[in-house]
């Protein structure tokens, strides 16, 4: 088997240990490396000519991306995974126990077990490259740092900083890393190796104690103080996760035990918790999301058709969506973008949106003011079509008005190049209808973003029958450069995400009209695992947007999409939600500092909240609607696979990731059980709960989606 590690001796006595996993894009830690690395460490121990050791990666722009997640997926039992963790502990202890200085030279991603490997070295130096990121993202996989991270990290950077990193899984940049004491130096990549060699040659540095405030000393330096911290951390975790994710609490327990009973005990607890977490359904679901999104990164959306380069873009409409689309085009894709709006106000909104985003980066010291201004210069504005002849793609983000979109299509075909793609950010109009005005329909496609654009990772790419494969591939590649996860969906009203969301929201509306309070509805779905409840979501998206989309969906897809008539009263009362400060909740001064329901909404709807139903029933009624419609979308080919349906729901509307998405959740529940629930509700509430035919046949045949 090809070697992963190679040891190079230098005349000055400093040896280089290079890690380069053969045939892989990135280094990952695998159990099969243990004998090889153990043998090398023995060789180093036995060679008195070696005075110091520098650990480097053989990959061009990454250090180590963590333990091999496929290896974790292959663990059959919790004990298998616990033993993997203990194996890592022993190897890292061997490295840390070398009596010569060991320095990690880090360039590129250094994550999970990769950072734990670096923590077992005596010192760390990293490059100042934007490609260099350090973190312990295990919690995002439903796991915890199982290579000693829960013990070494708090002892290096302090308990509070370590918990923040481990509980969020966030990655830190070099400047942050040196500030928190995670690395000992940050240098340009060109002198990274020589710096590491000098550090190794200079001998082991006893780490100067981290300068901390009196409060930190009291909290972290005493048992009482630490327990206050841990208890507070647990409360925050429960508030955020509603108890749906076991990993964060286990992380806190590892640190608590290790700090109270010593590192060895802490490592034992870490391995036991790590093993148990690998075996949880939550981690299996989260790992499946990693595999799915990694697989999707390689897909063009149009087979082997190569995308065209997008060297210049244009956005029509400088509103909330247009501003966000233009912002991610400059800040993420780094593509020049020209924003057109009918008013200077719209243009200044787009510019302000981008500037605000970029300035956050300056304030967080992620970029310099000069870098901000350079990116801002990529965005230009116009109230006409000057300067767009060379636009490769035009994204329209104007009102949901078909005639207006037809006008945009004609304008773009007149003013831009023959190859220019017309991408519509419509959230509901069939692309076929928009393309009807096109002389070049092959260039027309849907590119549906979710609000807020800079935060929501999903985009739906909607091809109509005449959309060319090159247009699809180019649009998918453009969205990916914007940092998006695109799913290609078939053209129909509401596409996929808004279609499954609509029935979920309608059921919540029905429950409201049955007398469930706004806050009880929202709390019930947050408890289920959504980031926000349906009423809050409607306020955020806009009650007027929902009112606009519903009749389109009802007309195109059928009676089950009919929104409750009482909701027309909300529009009559000009309740649009957050956007005009009048919705289900209070906004501005009326709200004060807490989130309060606008009780007047009950009067508008002519109802008085009654006896609260069980949160579980509320969630179930809304969820089964979403699940059933997701199956219909699969059956009609709106989504290409259960995988796309899962990723679309998780990244588009925050479907609980720990459930793996609608299709994985249905597999866990079983099609037969879901059919039973739907038929029960159908008997109680009518045909809107009629099970999808595919679901019924799967139930009858005992089939699953994966
Ligand atoms: C011991 C414990 O502490 C347990 C752990 O360490 S758990 C693992 C912790 N690490 C992570 O969660 C990182 C997961 N990886 C990523 O987030 C991303 O891959 C990246 C940010 C490292 C790089 O992203 P990107 O530049 O977009 O590249 P890809 O995602 O396409 O990845 C390139 C290839 O590397 C493979 N890969 C990356 N990380 C892992 C991993 N931890 N395990 C297995 N494979 C990994 C990825 O699958 C790609 O492989 P391909 O063959 O090129 O498709």
From TrEMBL:
Q: Where is this site: Important for catalytic activity?
A: 116, 138
List UniProt keywords, sorted A-Z.
Cytoplasm, Fatty acid metabolism, Isomerase, Lipid degradation, Lipid metabolism, Lyase, Multifunctional enzyme, NAD, Oxidoreductase
Residues forming the 3-hydroxyacyl-CoA dehydrogenase NAD binding domain are 313-492
The record's annotation in InterPro entries points to: 3-OHacyl-CoA_DH_NAD-bd (IPR006176), 3HC_DH_C (IPR006108), 6-PGluconate_DH-like_C_sf (IPR008927), ClpP/crotonase-like_dom_sf (IPR029045), Enoyl-CoA_hydra/iso (IPR001753), FA_oxidation_alpha_subunit (IPR050136), FadJ (IPR012802), NAD(P)-bd_dom_sf (IPR036291)
Region of interest: Enoyl-CoA hydratase: 1-188
Q: Give the record's subunit note.
A: Heterotetramer of two alpha chains (FadJ) and two beta chains (FadI).
The protein here is known as Fatty acid oxidation complex subunit alpha
Traced from the root, the source organism's taxonomic lineage reads: Bacteria, Pseudomonadati, Pseudomonadota, Gammaproteobacteria, Alteromonadales
């Amino acid at each position: 088997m090809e070697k992963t590690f190679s040891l190079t001796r230098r005349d000055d006595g400093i040896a280089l240990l290079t890690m380069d996993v053969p045939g892989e894009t990135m280094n990952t830690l695998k159990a099969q490396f243990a004998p090889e690395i153990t043998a090398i460490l023995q060789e180093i121990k036995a060679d008195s000519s070696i005075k110091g050791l520098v650990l480097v990666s053989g990959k061009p722009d990454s250090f180590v991306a963590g333990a091999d997640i496929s290896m974790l997926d292959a663990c059959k039992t919790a004990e298998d995974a616990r033993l993997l963790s203990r194996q890592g502990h022993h190897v890292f202890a061997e490295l840390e126990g070398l009596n010569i200085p060991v320095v990690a030279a880090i360039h590129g991603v250094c994550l999970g077990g990769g950072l734990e490997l670096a923590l077992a070295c005596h010192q760390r130096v990293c490059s100042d490259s934007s490609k260099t990121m350090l973190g312990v993202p295990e919690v995002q996989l439903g796991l915890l740092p199982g290579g000693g991270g829960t013990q070494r990290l708090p002892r290096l950077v302090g308990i509070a900083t370590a918990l923040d990193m481990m509980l969020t899984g966030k990655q830190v940049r070099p400047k942050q890393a040196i500030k928190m004491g995670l690395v000992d130096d940050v240098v340009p990549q060109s002198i990274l190796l020589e710096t590491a060699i000098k550090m190794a040659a200079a001998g082991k540095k006893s780490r100067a104690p981290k300068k901390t405030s009196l409060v930190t000393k009291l909290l972290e330096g005493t048992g009482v103080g630490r327990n206050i911290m841990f208890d507070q951390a647990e409360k925050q975790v429960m508030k955020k996760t509603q108890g749906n994710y076991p990993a964060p609490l286990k992380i806190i327990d590892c640190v608590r035990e290790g700090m109270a009973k010593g590192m060895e005990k802490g490592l034992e607890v870490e391995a036991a918790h790590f093993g148990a977490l690998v075996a949880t359904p939550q981690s299996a679901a989260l790992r499946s999301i990693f595999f799915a999104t990694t697989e999707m990164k390689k897909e063009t959306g149009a087979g082997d058709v190569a995308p065209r380069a997008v060297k210049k873009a244009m956005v029509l409409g400088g509103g909330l969506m247009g501003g966000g689309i233009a912002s991610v085009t400059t800040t993420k894709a780094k593509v020049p973008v020209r924003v057109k709006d009918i008013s200077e106000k719209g243009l200044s909104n787009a510019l302000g949106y981008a500037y605000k985003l970029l300035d956050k980066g300056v304030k967080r010291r992620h970029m310099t003011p000069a870098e901000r201004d350079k990116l801002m210069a990529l965005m230009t504005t116009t109230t006409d079509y000057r300067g767009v002849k060379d636009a490769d793609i035009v994204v329209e983000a104007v009102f949901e008005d078909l005639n207006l979109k037809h006008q945009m299509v004609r304008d773009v075909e007149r003013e831009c190049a023959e190859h220019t793609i017309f991408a519509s950010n419509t959230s509901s109009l069939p692309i076929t209808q928009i393309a009807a005005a096109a002389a070049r329909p092959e260039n027309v496609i849907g590119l549906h973003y979710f609000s807020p654009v800079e935060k929501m990772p999903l985009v739906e790419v909607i091809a109509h029958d005449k959309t060319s494969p090159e247009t699809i591939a180019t649009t998918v590649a453009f969205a990916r450069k914007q940092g998006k996860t695109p799913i290609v969906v078939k053209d129909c009203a509401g596409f996929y995400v808004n279609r499954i969301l609509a029935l979920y929201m309608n059921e919540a509306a029905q429950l409201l009209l049955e007398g469930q309070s706004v806050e009880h509805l929202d709390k019930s779905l947050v408890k289920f695992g959504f980031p926000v409840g349906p009423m809050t979501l409607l306020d955020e998206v806009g009650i007027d947007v929902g009112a606009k989309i519903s009749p389109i969906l009802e007309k195109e897809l059928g009676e089950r999409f009919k929104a409750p008539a009482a909701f027309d009263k909300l529009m009559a009362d000009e309740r649009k939600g957050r956007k005009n400060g009048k919705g289900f909740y209070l906004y501005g001064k009326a709200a004060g500092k807490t989130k309060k329901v606008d009780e007047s909404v009950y009067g508008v709807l002519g109802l008085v909240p009654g006896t609260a139903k069980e949160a579980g029933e509320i969630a179930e009624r809304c969820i089964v609607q979403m699940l059933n419609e997701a199956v219909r979308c699969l059956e009609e080919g709106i989504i290409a696979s259960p995988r796309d349906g899962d990723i679309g729901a998780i990244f588009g509307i925050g479907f609980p990731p720990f459930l793996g998405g609608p299709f994985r959740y249905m597999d866990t529940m079983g099609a037969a059980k879901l059919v039973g629930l739907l038929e029960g509700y159908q008997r109680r509430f009518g045909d809107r709960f009629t099970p999808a035919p595919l679901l019924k046949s799967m139930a009858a045949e005992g089939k699953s989606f994966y």
